[in-house]
Design a protein that fits this description.
Layout: E1 3-13, H1 16-27, E2 30-34, E3 38-42, E4 52-56, E5 61-69, H2 72-85, E6 90-92, E7 103-107, E8 113-117, E9 146-154, H3 157-167, E10 171-178, E11 184-191, E12 199-203, E13 208-215, H4 219-231, E14 236-242, E15 248-254, E16 260-266, E17 277-280, H5 284-288, H6 297-301
The protein binds fe (ii) ion.
Length: 304
């Protein structure tokens, strides 16, 4: 059984019309479908129907996140594992949202609603599967290739991490720790694919969303993304800069509803036998922002 990747996030957007315009024209996601209170979007190089759902909501934040499994039978196996572990699950019927098959839904100890699914309509990436060019015509904005990862917050970080490591075979690439014996978890970065992280979990407000991130292929695209942010008066939180953790290059910024986004590029490849890298609290500035070597207050206090 196999979780393959972070498949989708559903994001609350109180600033509805401006948020739709921003994700389509500034980020450069492609609108695939629309309901009265949901807009379904994909990054151009994703083949599935959608990876980002904007939800018309009174508040910003994460409505749910979902990992895609390879087979429908994986849902049964993961469901049994979760139930045996003491986690309550429910089945989300196919068709609850557009183009999606059935999902298994549960809540992790940091408060986020997580779904596992395998079926979703496939729409392709705009390129043929035989003799394709490297990118399709008509891309706008930052046009990231895909949804990459997210950072969520809550109280019981170790409890949430254990769900991913013990039941889903995720691995910890890096950890930020505190305490005299470096045994108090501030944040852990987890991977299931071969990137430096698919999800990270940090001590913070319960059911908090710190950011979700889109992948850019090259460092120069981050500079172009920063230009696009400036042209469109997007509020930049931090960067362009580099992380000590993951070694990725990055910009953090806010959508019109107050959700923090990131564009992320680079970092190392991971394998199941990659060792866990530890950063101690006294190096937190360098760990997060390698060039500046310090955090801005907004970065550590604003969640949606
Ligand atoms: Fe990130």
């Amino acid at each position: 059984m196999a979780i393959m990747r972070l498949g989708r996030v559903e994001i609350g957007c109180p600033n509805w019309e401006k948020s739709i315009e921003y994700y389509k024209n500034v980020i450069g996601l492609i609108e695939v479908a629309r309901e009265e209170d949901r807009v379904y979007l994909k990054a151009w190089d994703e083949h599935d129907h959608h990876s980002v759902i904007l939800k018309k909501n009174d508040s910003a934040g994460l409505v749910h996140l979902a990992f895609k499994c390879e087979f429908a039978s994986d849902l049964d196996l993961y469901e049994e594992k979760l139930n045996n572990y003491g986690v309550t699950t429910e089945r989300v019927p196919a068709g609850t949202r557009l183009a999606e098959g059935e999902a298994v839904r549960f809540v992790i100890p940091t408060g986020q609603t997580v779904e596992l699914y395998s079926e979703i309509e496939v729409v392709g990436n705009g390129l043929p599967l035989v003799n394709p060019d490297p990118w399709p015509d008509g891309l706008v904005g930052m046009h990231p290739t895909r949804l990459d990862h997210l950072l969520v917050a809550g109280d019981d970080v170790d409890g949430a991490v254990k769900i991913f490591t013990d039941l889903f075979d995720f691995h910890v690439s890096e950890q930020l720790v505190a305490g005299e014996n470096n045994d108090v978890t501030i944040c852990k970065w987890l991977f299931k694919t071969n990137t430096a992280h698919d999800i990270a979990i940090i001590k913070g407000p319960q059911n908090g969303l710190h950011h979700f991130a889109f992948w850019l292929d090259e460092w120069v695209e981050l500079r172009n993304a920063a230009d696009i942010m400036a042209k469109n008066d997007v509020m930049i939180d931090a960067g362009p800069t580099r992380h000590g953790i993951t070694r990725g290059t990055t910009i953090y910024f806010f959508d019109p509803s107050g959700n923090r986004n990131e564009v992320f590029c680079g970092g190392y490849i991971t394998y199941p036998d990659s060792p866990t890298i530890t950063w101690t609290e006294d190096t937190i500035g360098k760990a997060i922002f390698y060039f500046e070597r310090e955090l801005n207050e907004r970065f550590t206090t604003v969640f949606s």
